[in-house]
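Input set for joint prediction.
Command: fold jointly, output tokens.
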Amino acid sequence: MSKIKVAVAGLGRIGKIHLKNLCRNFPEIEVVAVMDVLDESKKIADEFNVPVFVKSFDELLAIEGVDAVVICSPTDTHADYVVKAANAGKQIFCEKPLDLSLDRVKEVLEIVEKSAVKLMLGFNRRFDPEFKKIKQLVEDDAIGDVQIVKITSRDPGPPPVSYIKVSGGLFLDMTIHDFDMARYISGKSVKEVFAKGAVMVDPGIGEAGDIDTAIITLTFEDDSMAVIDNSRKAVYGYDQRLEVFGSKGMAQAENNFPNHHKLYTETGISGDLPLHFFLERYDASYNREMSEFIEALVSGSEMPVGGNDGLLSIAIGLAAKKSVAEGRPVKLTEILN
Amino acid sequence: MSKIKVAVAGLGRIGKIHLKNLCRNFPEIEVVAVMDVLDESKKIADEFNVPVFVKSFDELLAIEGVDAVVICSPTDTHADYVVKAANAGKQIFCEKPLDLSLDRVKEVLEIVEKSAVKLMLGFNRRFDPEFKKIKQLVEDDAIGDVQIVKITSRDPGPPPVSYIKVSGGLFLDMTIHDFDMARYISGKSVKEVFAKGAVMVDPGIGEAGDIDTAIITLTFEDDSMAVIDNSRKAVYGYDQRLEVFGSKGMAQAENNFPNHHKLYTETGISGDLPLHFFLERYDASYNREMSEFIEALVSGSEMPVGGNDGLLSIAIGLAAKKSVAEGRPVKLTEILN
Amino acid sequence: MSKIKVAVAGLGRIGKIHLKNLCRNFPEIEVVAVMDVLDESKKIADEFNVPVFVKSFDELLAIEGVDAVVICSPTDTHADYVVKAANAGKQIFCEKPLDLSLDRVKEVLEIVEKSAVKLMLGFNRRFDPEFKKIKQLVEDDAIGDVQIVKITSRDPGPPPVSYIKVSGGLFLDMTIHDFDMARYISGKSVKEVFAKGAVMVDPGIGEAGDIDTAIITLTFEDDSMAVIDNSRKAVYGYDQRLEVFGSKGMAQAENNFPNHHKLYTETGISGDLPLHFFLERYDASYNREMSEFIEALVSGSEMPVGGNDGLLSIAIGLAAKKSVAEGRPVKLTEILN
Amino acid sequence: MSKIKVAVAGLGRIGKIHLKNLCRNFPEIEVVAVMDVLDESKKIADEFNVPVFVKSFDELLAIEGVDAVVICSPTDTHADYVVKAANAGKQIFCEKPLDLSLDRVKEVLEIVEKSAVKLMLGFNRRFDPEFKKIKQLVEDDAIGDVQIVKITSRDPGPPPVSYIKVSGGLFLDMTIHDFDMARYISGKSVKEVFAKGAVMVDPGIGEAGDIDTAIITLTFEDDSMAVIDNSRKAVYGYDQRLEVFGSKGMAQAENNFPNHHKLYTETGISGDLPLHFFLERYDASYNREMSEFIEALVSGSEMPVGGNDGLLSIAIGLAAKKSVAEGRPVKLTEILN
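tokens >
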């Protein structure tokens, strides 16, 4: 059986993770080419023995025999690259978000829909072992009817204000993962969003028109609810927890730690902080995510995260922005229609 | 030194707890009389060797030498009894809430204010060792500026629908404790309330015009926030947790358990459920509460929970009701003015 | 029904605890007299409204109508007082150990045996909620056949060397509780003892002929085992844990804490130390112990801890001493016969 | 810089783990050949693109340019292979134990000593992140002088009796890891061993002359102690814990789990069992172990685990066997001289 030929576009932090996983852990595929706009990224290609390095996405698509592309380039290239890849008949994995404009996302998804290819979006947290376990408990009906979903999602520190200005802001850049998690874990559709935001971490973020602290209440179609709390800066590190409460019980997922030692001294009991940020915390999830992408490629089955998941998370993010701006709950239909 | 003479009004569940603590744990006071409308409550008086048992509050106040009254009778008697006790010059401990009507509460507090007596309200959770520890960490600045307060407050099962009809509903009967906790733990004033509610536990509660599941976002004067989640029915028992997130760190208070054993078997690791309900969970808090009341009596110092704390919690509760009814955030000024 | 009349001998730390529990928590009994050799202990009698205070045990026994005595005086008085009380026909609760001499213990137990009274010994840890839960799991066969019992027992600091000289040393003064726990939790007889000891905490303890650090392996009749580790000084406080491993699983009992908060800061996660010493840690156990003593008095049923339990724990302690002295395992029959 | 050329001998469970790690995670080395006595192991070579597959160790050594060998073949081949590799001038990583005969081990170590090569032994648990953290705390003097080391080491199930017969028994096959851990974590020499053993799991193990349950007390040169408890069968899975108690505090290492979820239901709180056995539990340790071996190869520095570590663990194991057989503590000098 011949190997599936994969090309990777974009060799930033996430691109390098996917490249490493693809090269090391999946004998059923072969990375035949990588693309990055920076010359120095050729070194990365060499390190992983990838035979072809190019600097544009068009060149990448022109390479003979590529079956699938993994798109990890900056957000503003996602939509174009996905359209090009779909037109070229390549299977697609693309990092989230597809685009910050809902209309553009819809347009892209229509093109993909009409094409012969499938698209998977990089909501990696769905593949985290802690959260996957909770999802499984929900599916096994161990929790019963889901009534309340609680997501704690706090970063160890804010990105540069310059990045915040182009990222779409807290809700589209950071909370978007939590919006997807709320939908995924409950298996329910969101109908209304109420968000309160504040600038507590860095006034510069406020001057850039964004917030750095937020509480968001999502109402699902059946009136059950999710609540998310966000901060751009938890001094103790990356805080990623999940709790699902239902008619039969409650399940909690904890942070991940480098070790679980306890030290007892005269002054108290202490232990290590959680894994510091997403590269460490979600290391296993990135690998599983790629594994499920490859499995879907091989088997021809449905992608585990589809384009519509991306669309809805963006819509919820836009509703949250509108809710903060207008000081009122916003129906998702206001955004989607 | 002569002992302080205390009389207890109302010998329901809470009344009996206060009576027991007063009789057993505080040698500096003496319970000289108890009052209850039911004849059979005389047995309780006898059990604790309380010399006088009466059936009306007026009789209780008429007893010679009573210094202070502890009011644990039904909610609809609180306002009247407090007014009578204040007029009679008795120091007052009264269970929450003072009344379901804000105007009546204001009226009563004015009377107390003008009187020579002090009033303490029974927000017992402030005296729980778990929450007191978190409060101390906030005061010690171990958490820094408080940015997010998270309160989980779920009952093991709903009260009878008949009770719900007269109790003022979820927000005034149950969440009122959480509103007080949010104010107490943060030391901040609430300026806005947004609440979403649903009927997930019992349709009868919905038919009675109330909700049984809720998420409430409180905005403090400085834009920091608190979020509360409530359910009338957690099948695993009483769930009372608190988390405070700030600029220097985060502190969590856990549920209380009958023991902390872990059992490892072929099928998993298991442990006991939390203490089932408030009588067990807040056993220590009731004792400490009474202890601080007596200390304030003895020393003449400020009461640790004042009438205004009751007023504000009721106002927040009314704002939450209005928020659910009108589907929008409600400013506290809308309620208070 | 008339109340059982109890007299308490000895008002040191433990005596005061028992007195307080007896006075406050058991309406079915009445403390009619207390005895202590110190004049100033009369204050304690007054504080608890005990009508009679005497300074000798003979006077105590001479008081009309006393049904039971609770003996909390120094160890070297236990044997004499028990014999006198038995001869006077009083039911007896006595703190451990009965005596440091095995022959004297046997003699006393024979006298009690022939008398009309029952004797309960103060192995209070059997009544600790954490350990009781483990015992219940063993009895419910949740752990299966017990194969290994592990006891961690460390004090926050050593007693004065002067006390160590008269206490019988580590094994008879401190480990004796653990020997009883090993027997109680397993429900098995000990046949062999091997102990290693060291002086790690205070050279003065070594000079007094004792050790301050020890590991003891007990072999039960069926070859299953218990292991105990002791230290006179755990800088982090009182460390009292238990683990039982068997054919169906394993159960663990944890230390007790003043609260279970967790504080996350830039430098790590921290929490409070265990309750500092036995008065706090075993507070509940002292009360339950007295409760079961009273229950046995009232119902006339078997005492929950008998004289033989004291005898065997002392014998194991003597075997442990011999094992350290001779550097070899010691059969219990070498001690008992 | 040219890559270090490594050959792997033996492709059983451990061999495959080392091969996978070597091929995937260390770009600085190249696996040039593998050897296994079974024909079908060639498939494994192919899977990892290893160019050369041979069936004898001599052939393996004959391959041009091999710098180092990783020996994972059965225990009874270790000594011969190490001698051959040393004579051939290849750097050596060898799984434990070197041999079951102390004389043979001494002989082999002398040959290695005189050769130009270095030998690292596979005590992988030293590289486990949980235990490494505790070691670091000991080295940082966070625990002070080590007084008691406690090791819990229980397997999920016994190996076949046929294996037990040739493995050297519990102490040389299983506890040997714990003996090494006691030495490693304390940094101290063992002077005396006392072991009690029992057959609690499978009478067949007893019939084969071995035990399946044991408690071992090690005395270090300075009289501080370690205690190890072993069982061949913990129904709840692989139990690998460590506790170090010292003059400044105490540190604990926990088991590893597939996730840390908690599920609260009507019947209790539950969570997942520890990772089932050594392949999962020590996955990270095998990788780090190989990483430190390669680092030592590259830098020419000391091997992190030397031949003497193997010698001493075997000697302690033999002392433990003798202790059980003779029912007395055994000095290590009795074994070593």
